[in-house]
Amino acid sequence: METLIVHPKNKEQLSALKAFIKALKIDFTTEKNTYNPEFVAKIKRSQEQMNSGKGTKIAIEDLWK
């Protein structure tokens, strides 16, 4: 069987999709994801770089100079 991933653009589309799926008696799960996956990947990559010593740390006090 296949898994479908849909990306409704607004709450109206989300509600309509849920109603349609329920009417067909199809099991589904929801997952809340508030961040863009590409953004999350960039942050994780940056964290890995910092952990491996490839970054520069700046003290907060130095930001105002």
Describe the structure.
It is built from two helices and no strands. It has 65 residues and is mainly alpha-helical. The chain has one domain. It is elongated and about 60 Å long.
Task: Note the main attributes of this structure.
single chain, mainly alpha, 65 residues, 0% strand, elongated
Write the layout of secondary structure elements.
Elements lengths: L10 H13 L13 H15 L14
Whole-number mean pLDDT: 91
Helix percent band = 40-55%
- How many domains? The number is 1
Specify Rg, calculated over alpha carbons: 21 Å
User: For the terminal residues, how far apart are their CA atoms?
Assistant: 60 Å
Unreliable runs: none
Beta-strand portion reads: under 5%
The profile of the biggest β sheet is:
none
State the total count of DSSP E strands.
0
Going by helix content, strand content and strand pairing, the class is mainly alpha
* Count of DSSP-assigned helices: 2
> What coarse outline follows from CA principal-axis ratios?
elongated
**Element-by-element helix/strand order:** HH
Short synopsis of the structure:
The protein is mainly α.
